[in-house]
Amino acid sequence: MPNHSPLSNDSIAPSSPETERQHDGRRQRLVRSVKGPIQFLGFWVAITLPFVHVPLLVHGLDEPGVTAAFLGLVAVNLLALYTGHGYNRP
What we know:
With 90 residues, this protein is mainly α. It has a domain at 36-90. It is built from 3 helices and no strands. The longest helix has 32 residues, at 17-48. The radius of gyration is 25 Å and the shape is elongated.
């Protein structure tokens, strides 16, 4: 039984393997162009962020706000270590 719809659906073209390869190529170029700056930023944040921990530790972690800030900075530092671990590697 043929489907005789009054609405045309010609605007949706079937996906071809060549079109999918082009999309994959664009996606890979985008990842490569974004990966370097993100790793650079993660690396340097991971290097410099521990210097912010020192004043918090010197002040003491008695207050809940200071403790929360310290734990938040540790979490950000761990994320920066993860994202920046591959920076400047071949």
